[in-house]
Write the structure tokens for this entry.
Amino acid sequence: MAPVDLIGSSPKFRAVLAELEKVAPVDSSVLLQGETGTGKEVIARAIHDASPRRNNRFVALNCAAIPAALLESELFGHEKGAFTGAWGLAKGRFQSADGGTIFLDEIGDMPLEIQPKLLRVLQEREFERLGSGQTVRVNVRVVAATNQDLAQLVNRKLFRADLFYRLNVVPIHLPPLRERIQDILPLTQCFVARFAARLNKTIDVIPDDVLAVLKAHDWPGNVRELQNVIERAVLFSPGPALSLHMGLTPTRKETIEMPKRTLAEADREHILETLHKTNWMIGGQDGAANLLGLPRTTLIYKMRKLGIETRRSPVTPMLRELAEEECCAAANG
Ligand SMILES: Nc1ncnc2c1ncn2[C@@H]1O[C@H](COP(=O)(O)OP(=O)(O)OP(=O)(O)O)[C@@H](O)[C@H]1O
Ligand SMILES: [Mg+2]
């Protein structure tokens, strides 16, 4: 992602910028929390760019986008032959970020079984590649982000408390766009200019009624949603005045929750289907975890998170107990 000029002059956004300036020069871990599209990634990059590490790499990794089984190797690397398919040595993102910054996005999705290893890098700055006994030392600053309530995940034993405190040295909360309406005009002007240039159009008027509609909308998708709306508006505006073409639906709550629910629902359905196939057997060669390509503890963790109760298993009480035991072990590290 190319560096972005941070736009916004509302008091809440200015407060974020002030925190950014304070935290950039030091090496403390930063935890960015905020709804989707509020600018967590651009702020993470801005912290790196304003830090003494700016000439080294900024390495971003989305913890939710990588299957749990691969995440550990992605972060810490592996030796040749460490597991089936490990054809050669891989350095891992921590080592690539040496001297720079690693951005761990969606940190709330970091599986419990990898969390101790992350904690160790944060505390001791060292780790071992998968399949290697040799300790690697790195000097990496960690910036993490999440749109989940991490403290609540800790309370529910889905995230390690010690790791949470270690990451949360400097918490920065990114306010939703609806709480900084003052930023809507400058952001709109910036996006209009950008997309008009890209589409080779001239749009130099933002009519008052258009601005009023933009200010009244709730922006569940925050700055990203505004950016998309403006891109479409620029595309469809017939003359030099920005027109919204399609109305913005004020039914915000539904729009906020729908995509999340759909994704979680899709996961839920897939897991339930697999559990059904395996007669609720989780572990073992023919178990659901194996079919889904997940470690058992990760599947159980996901099931808990999605509200699928292991006790619904009609299989055996013993298995259920085993699963619950494992779940607690995973939750407690
Ligand atoms: N203050 C800002 N000024 C200019 N552009 C911004 C600003 N904040 C966000 N953006 C733009 O909005 C989009 C969304 O920002 P970003 O990807 O950083 O959000 P996010 O919080 O990481 O979202 P998600 O939780 O969905 O990953 C990006 O295209 C980014 O460039
Ligand atoms: Mg992001």
